[in-house]
From TrEMBL:
The protein's name: M18 family aminopeptidase
Annotated family: Belongs to the peptidase M18 family.
CDD domains given in the database record: M18_DAP (cd05658)
Coiled coil stretches, renumbered: none
Class of this enzyme: hydrolase
């Protein structure tokens, strides 16, 4: 895969994946096309060498792996981990609000949303809906309105003179989006609108909406930015970019060595769920794959936790340690925190640096300022659960947790090349 092709396909992936369920569905299609076999956790598994498999949990987390030519207990497994979820505004169970003829929906803030950028943006809506179909069967389906259906208008500065100096956002009262205008006697429910959307998208008859997990998202598609197209702007770069990089690396490996990609949901809210990185999903897959040889396999394995990093902002340079300010388009960022907010150690960092240097590709290092708190990733959670040597790394970006984020056009492809080599390398250590 060439550089331009990589970025063009990345834009397609981002635009097709407005929610974790859509992201996993998109990955499934690509894995199916590459000959991977889907496994069901409810069934017995019979895994063969030199085969490729994947398994999905809750529709929002996925583990895909190649068994390789040798037993994993003897060869170890080259693992890459990322997460499918991004901060957003989720629709509440009883969301309808009618005020002055405007139809609005109540929303719950999911994750550490940077809330101000959500105002005055064209918003669409997508997610999973569970319903009773025409045969009285409980069914799940994905919906994506795909067009601009909502807006959160700012209060005019004439009515809020302190907006530019001390504006605060109240998540309960300030964020309900406006969807349409309705007459005073209108009785349209949100469930009615969902039923119509399901029929429109899939033609399935809906008897009754039973539940949903839906989130608003930026209707503007991903695209290039910059006089020389140096950047890519998009929603959900944190962390669908890493999902895409890991997927492409797995698809482009030789398949000779045991390799695995895990993309977990719920990282943005702590990863404590059945399909989150602090849950049993990956461990369950490895138990069934490796059996009694799992401990030996883990001892020979390495996990690369891929999650975007904070690029040094030219307007806020003092927010970085002066020797550890990653620059966009200057290489992926090895993330170090000795208090174990990141799982990187000297050994795991050395593996990445060595491969990157062999390929003649750049890399950078990030350490948070000593007087600031440090975020975290699925890396420490996975390392603690499995006991596997782990590296935390990511592409540098601006605007993390905003409705629209920014990366350089060079860094994703650079990390893809290194991780592809990592996933097919015979000897990791």
């Amino acid at each position: 895969m060439e550089h331009a092709e990589f970025n063009k396909d990345l834009l397609k992936f981002l635009n097709a994946s407005p929610t974790p369920w859509h992201a996993v569905a998109t990955m499934k299609k690509r894995l199916d096309a590459a000959g991977f076999e889907e496994l069901d956790e409810k069934d017995d598994w019979s895994l063969d060498q030199n085969r490729s498999y994947y398994v999905v949990r809750n529709g929002s987390s996925i583990v895909a792996f190649r068994t390789g030519a040798r037993d994993a207990s003897a060869s170890g497994i080259r693992m890459v981990g990322a997460h499918t979820d991004s901060p957003c505004l989720k629709v509440k169970p009883n969301p309808e609000l009618r005020r002055k003829g405007f139809f609005q929906l109540g929303v719950e803030v999911y994750g550490g949303v940077l809330m101000n950028p959500w105002f005055d943006r064209d918003l669409s809506l997508a997610g999973r809906v569970t319903f009773l179909d025409g045969h009285d069967k409980v069914t799940d389906t994905l919906v994506d309105f795909r067009k601009s259906v909502a807006f959160i208008p700012s209060l005019a500065i004439h009515l809020d003179k302190e907006a530019n100096s001390s504006r605060k956002v109240n998540a309960q009262t300030d964020l309900p989006p406006v969807l349409m205008q309705v007459p005073e006697d209108d009785a349209t429910s949100f469930n009615d609108l969902l039923s119509q959307q399901i029929v429109s998208e899939s033609g399935i008859k809906v008897r009754k909406i039973l539940g949903y997990e839906l989130g608003f998202y930026d209707a503007q598609e991903a695209g290039y930015v910059g006089l020389r197209d140096e950047f890519i702007a998009s929603a959900r770069l944190d962390n669908l970019l890493s999902c895409y990089i890991g997927l492409q690396a797995l698809l482009n490996t030789s398949g000779d060595e045991a390799a695995l990609l895990v993309c977990n949901d719920h990282e943005e809210v702590g990863s404590v769920s059945s399909e989150g990185a602090q849950g049993p999903f990956l461990t369950a897959v490895l138990d069934r794959w490796c059996g009694s040889g799992k401990a030996k396999a883990i001892a020979r394995s390495m996990m690369v936790s891929a999650d975007n990093a904070h690029g040094v902002h030219p307007n806020y340079m003092d927010k970085h340690d002066e020797n550890h300010g990653p620059i966009l388009n200057k290489g992926p960022v090895i993330k170090v925190n000795h208090n174990q907010r990141y799982a990187t150690n000297s050994r795991s960092a050395a593996v990445y640096r060595h491969i990157s240097d062999e390929l003649g590709l750049p890399h950078q290092t990030f350490v948070v300022r000593s007087d600031m708190g440090c975020g975290s990733t699925i890396g420490p959670l996975t390392a603690a659960n499995l006991g596997v040597t782990t590296l935390d790394i990511g592409v540098p970006q601006f605007g993390m947790h905003s409705i629209r984020e920014l990366i350089g056009t060079e860094d994703g492809f650079t990390m893809f090349r290194v991780l592809t080599e990592f996933m097919q390398r015979e000897q990791v250590f």
